[in-house]
Amino acid sequence: MAAPSLSPAGSVVSEPAGARRRTRAGSRAERLAPLVLVAPAVLIIVVLRLWPLVLGVNFSFTGDGDRNGMMVGFDNYLTLFSDPLFRTALRNVGVLVLLLPIAVAIPGLLATFIYLRVPGHRLYRGVYFFPAVLSPVIVGAIFNLLLAFDGPLNRLLGGLGLGPVDWLGDPGVAVFTVVGVHVWATFGMALVVFLAGFATLDSSLLDAAEVDGASFAQTIWHVIVPSLSRTIQFVFVTTMIGMLTSMFGLLYVMTSGGPEGSTYLPEYYIWIQQGQMNQPALASAASTALFLIMLVVGLAQIGILRRAAGKED
């Protein structure tokens, strides 16, 4: 049955029912198309990420050894926070958070110089990214030689009259040494992200700042930082995640958690409990704690950066 409708001339014409059904079917397909396209990615995330996460959290409430498979409540978490090594790992997480602005500022400034086409910027682009393709084991082995107590760096310092530094044997220095090596080895990826962000920067803003007589520091703070606020947020979060979850190779090769456990991070502690102490439930509890730390720190960083960007606007 056809429904009546008005033609442009004002006369009544009928619209076929089949056409209406096809129109409704077409609109329904348009609404469902995005869901169909997103479904495979969502399924992969749920199956390979969220479901294992739920299983890991549940496993953290079970026991090890004689109590394997038994629900023990929060016993594993109480054991964690009473373990001096885990408390040291948490303290080192605080050190990472304090050093994070430096780890982000270095690639940000270098990307700024490359964007402004300083002499040799094409060479610098390749040189800065090169360490990112090296294996952490190779990087650790190289710096073990360079930073040895009788290594080249200490010989250079000795020639300058500054005396040797026990870079990897002093508990107060070792963690900063490993973090510094990690930043050197990974800042190339953040550099690429910053360069991608600069591709969206309106160059007229830089021209206006130059006309107004803004200094280089003022241009960075009042033009570049607000324009790249989302890029900076992304680099902050990914750099923090990288520090918390990608330093195992360096730690294992350079210090093995020493000296005196001073370079322990949650990631290394998890491996020790799972791989050497055969305490998978305790390792799961440490993994859950690490996940919560990353979640809280990441959300806090995003909130702080958004408020800073809002004040700048």
TrEMBL record:
PROSITE patterns registered for this protein in UniProt: ABC_TM1 (PS50928)
Record's keyword annotation contains Phosphoprotein: no
UniProt keywords, alphabetically: Cell membrane, Membrane, Transmembrane, Transmembrane helix, Transport
Gene3D superfamilies xrefs: MetI-like
Annotated region (Disordered), positions in chain: 1-22
Species whose genome carries this gene: Lentzea rhizosphaerae
Residues annotated as transmembrane: 32-51, 93-116, 128-149, 173-196, 234-254, 281-305
Family: Belongs to the binding-protein-dependent transport system permease family.
Domain ABC transmembrane type-1: 85-301
Main location: membrane
Entry protein name: Carbohydrate ABC transporter permease
Pfam families: BPD_transp_1
Topology of this chain in the membrane: Multi-pass membrane protein
Subcellular location(s) per record: Cell membrane
InterPro entries linked: ABC_transporter_permease, MetI-like, MetI-like_sf
Domain of life: Bacteria
